[in-house]
Amino acid sequence: MATVEFQVTGMTCGHCELSIREEVHEVAGVESVEVSHQTGRLVVTGDRTVDAAAVIAAVKEAGYLGVLSS
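Below the sequence we write its predicted structure tokens.
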């Protein structure tokens, strides 16, 4: 399993978290998604095939533009 952490800006509520969680969970290889609007933290766990660029694209698809991989 691999874990990748991101910082997402622009989230303000639980609905924001849900939108991101749903989009990122569709990325190939993703096993679990933890997201907090309070901290802006997004933690994605999955197999070694999880592509950080695909996760960032999914977050942008959910409507959040400020995404940084950490």
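The beta strands are 2-9, 30-35, 41-46, 66-69.
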